[in-house]
């Protein structure tokens, strides 16, 4: 209802009384009836049935006040119930964090770092798991995400490192002392991730009113949908995601303003996706490689990567990873993930052989001092090939090495940064895919009109 048309009530009693035109017809009757009653019997029983009590406005106000108090108390009780329920939920989740997801309490649960990582992942699934279209989050979902993420990220406030600092005393002497400051990786990456999180929520909120809509009926149509955004032209989307809603546009297509808005948000989400992916890759590279993974590496990198790839990597003077991937003709993401595991295993096998003479040195130091070494060259080319493969398949699942790092990680700070960047990377990727789908449907509609 428009505010200009809503009824207004002034502060005085006139808002609660009849107008003069409504009471003029009863004036004479009221006078006779009141005169016929004595002062002792001048009660509501003597008032005429068709008249209104002169005390009714006051009584109505008192009744409204009572009703307001009653509603207020009911609201307070409901709020208290919601607060108690949320408190119990937070207690339960905090207990699971302390128990390491081992409800028996026997101490056989996973590490705290893995538990926090799983908590962030599960929170993302519960909030965004059913969100599959370009529209704002439900308010309760948004509140849940912000509140619980703030609680999980608050752990980083207590992850600090000691650094030397000088303090001037009153006698003008300087004294060296150790002070605490946020750990460098958290101090750099966490504010950036929080900013990326806010930008993604803002992008979803910008689709409050849209010219397109979604059709829940039917499965994906190969004529209407493109494959998920992969940074390069890709074939049309397969039927592997038939459950996603189908975007629809008007018969005349989207307006130029709507298409411009979609392109701007797509570019923004794409930049966020690249930033989150870069942070995630950086955190994973800093994680310690588990001993179980090192023990599982093959003795020969050639055995792991295969003869075909090995011959190309060692025979050519100018290594072209894109040409090699085209020759391999990878048909599915499952094959791509299997190839990524093999390339990664061979890369670390060659690194181990290159570092065998000086195992305590870092890989960067070994590369600098052993430039041109066969194992160093093969390891570098394997790294380039793996990067190109991930660029071609950006929705690729985590490799065996990444999964092992997350599973055996003991650093809580790294666990928070890795899981937070991973879920933001997934959300940004989904937003880009949804926008690409809408733009493709609009383009298909325009092509159909041109043909007609």
Automatic annotation (TrEMBL):
<protein>
    <recommendedName>
        <fullName>PRONE domain-containing protein</fullName>
    </recommendedName>
</protein>
<feature type="region of interest" description="Disordered">
    <location>
        <begin position="1"/>
        <end position="24"/>
    </location>
</feature>
<dbReference type="InterPro" id="IPR038937">
    <property type="entry name" value="RopGEF"/>
</dbReference>
<feature type="domain" description="PRONE">
    <location>
        <begin position="77"/>
        <end position="452"/>
    </location>
</feature>
<dbReference type="Pfam" id="PF03759">
    <property type="entry name" value="PRONE"/>
</dbReference>
<dbReference type="InterPro" id="IPR005512">
    <property type="entry name" value="PRONE_dom"/>
</dbReference>
<dbReference type="GO" id="GO:0005085">
    <property type="term" value="F:guanyl-nucleotide exchange factor activity"/>
</dbReference>
<keyword id="KW-0344">Guanine-nucleotide releasing factor</keyword>
